[in-house]
Amino acid sequence: MRPARIEVTELLSSRYDSAESHKRTRPMEWGERLAGVDVVRVSGGHTVRLKSSPMQSPPKPGWVLMLTDGNDSEGYAWTLYGLSRTH
Predict the structure, then answer these.
(1) Helix (H, G, I), strand (E, B), or coil: what is residue 57?
(2) Which of 46, 54, 65, 67 could make an SS bond with 4 (beta carbons 3.0 to 4.6 A apart)?
């Protein structure tokens, strides 16, 4: 896969969606942070699975991401590229 730029329009599910954590945000405590998959809707309406590290917050609407590696089934590695001018 070549790097791709996407814009998040909606966070559909977060790796922090669980009975223990209803916040959908990265915990402040290092020991509570998780690696996992976040699922987002992007401009154009497509759904994308993102492989997120414990250091990354779940993506928010308006974030522009650069997808660097991965596939549709396992998810894509990503980095924050910028913020949309519309958000």
Answers:
(1) coil
(2) 67
E strands within the chain?
Answer: 4-13, 36-42, 47-52, 63-71, 75-83
pLDDT given for residue 28 in this prediction: 81
Nearest CA to 13 among 84, 75, 55, 71? 75
Counted residue by residue, the chain has a size of 87
Reported as a single tens digit per residue, the pLDDT across 30-73 is: 888 899 999 999 999 999 999 999 999 999 999 999 999 999 99
Token pair of 63 as six digits: 């974030």
Residue 42 has which token pair? 């992007």
